[in-house]
Amino acid sequence: MGRLSKTYMPSRAFSSISVQHKETPENNDSVPFEFTDENYKEIDKILKRYPPNYKRSAIIPVLTIAQKQNDNFLSLSAMRKVAKILEVPEMDIFEVASFYTMFNRERVGKIHLQVCGTTPCLLCGADKIIQALEKHLGIKNGETTPDGWFTIQEVECLGACANAPMIQVNGEWVYEDLTPESVITLIEKLKKGEPVKRGPQTHRNDCEGPQGRTSLINFNQERTFDRDFAAEKVAYQKEKEAKAQAAKEAAAKGKK
Ligand code: FES
C-alpha cells in the first residue's frame, strides 16, 4: 500500500463541488425545464412501482432522469419540476440533490471524473491519482477545464474498494486499479473517443487476489467458472421464441 502524501490533505466534505445554488445565466428560475415525452413515459413506469401516496419514493430515479436529460446537471427548474410531479416540498428535492454526489448541482465537464477518496482508495494512492489529474489538466479538484472537457471531483466510496484506487466517469462506468500513469492514458483515450477497457486497468478481470481466483474451487479442488451467459441468453431466446410460436399455433387452431 502506498503511503499518504504529505502534500495532499484531502477535504473530508462529502464532495469537492459546492452544493449551494449559484445563480448563473444557465441556472436560474427563468431557465425553463420540461421533461421529454419519452421521459414522462419512463417516470410513469417508475411511479407505478409505488402506492400513489408514496410518490416521494421515486425522488432518486426521477432526479436521475432529469439530470441525464439536462446535460448531466440538475438545474433549479429541473428540481422544481421533479418536486411538482412527485407532489413533495421543493426543499425535500433540494436536500436529496445536495446530499448525494451522484447529483450535480452545477454544470460539469463533458467527462466528469469522480475520484474516490475514501480510506481504502486513499491508502492505495487516490491522492496520487488526484495529483496526476490536476497536473495533467491544469485544474484543481472541484474545477472544470476552461474548454469544458473535464471536471475533477473527489467523492466518497463508490463500492469498488477491492480494486482501489478507482474513478467513475459520468456517473456510470468505473475504472479501477489505477496508477498516476494509467489514469492519464485512460482520460486521453476517453477524450478522443477511443475504446477503453472498463473495470480494472491491469491484468485483473474482476477483484481476484494475487493468487488468482480461489473462491470458486469445488470439492475436488477443481476450479469452476461462471456460467456461459452468452450461451444462456441464446437458449433463453430460443425457448421464448418456441413458446411464442406454440401460442400462435394454439390461437390459430382455436380460430378454426
Ligand atoms: S473506498 Fe474507494 S471505492 Fe470504496
- CATH architecture name of the largest domain: 3-Layer(aba) Sandwich
- Identify the CATH class of the largest domain: Alpha Beta
Q: Would you identify the CATH H-level superfamily of the largest domain?
A: Glutaredoxin
Following the backbone from N to C, one meets helices and strands in this order, namely HHHHEHHEEEHEH
Query: What oligomeric state do the depicted chains represent?
Result: single chain
In percent terms, what proportion of residues is strand?
Answer: 5-15%
- So what's the overall shape? flat
Residue runs with pLDDT of under 50 for 5 or more positions: 1-14
The helix count comes to: 8
The radius of gyration is 23 Å
Q: What hetero molecules are in the model? A: FE2/S2 (inorganic) cluster
Helix content: 25-40%
DSSP E strands, number = 5
Q: Which structural class is indicated by helix and strand composition?
A: alpha/beta
Please outline the major beta sheet.
5 strands, mixed
- Report how far apart the termini are: 75 Å
Output the CATH topology of the largest domain: Glutaredoxin
- Overall number of domains: 2
Biggest sheet, spatial arrangement of strands: 2-1-3-4-5
Mean pLDDT: 89
Describe the SSE topology.
Elements: H1 37-47, H2 59-69, H3 76-86, H4 90-99, E1 111-116, H5 119-123, H6 126-137, E2 150-155, E3 167-169, E4 173-176, H7 180-192, E5 199-200, H8 229-255
Parallel strand pairs: 1-2, 4-5
Antiparallel strand pairs: 1-3, 3-4
Helix pairs in contact: 1-2, 2-3, 3-4, 6-7
FE2/S2 (inorganic) cluster is lined by residues 116, 118, 120-121, 157-161, 164, 166.
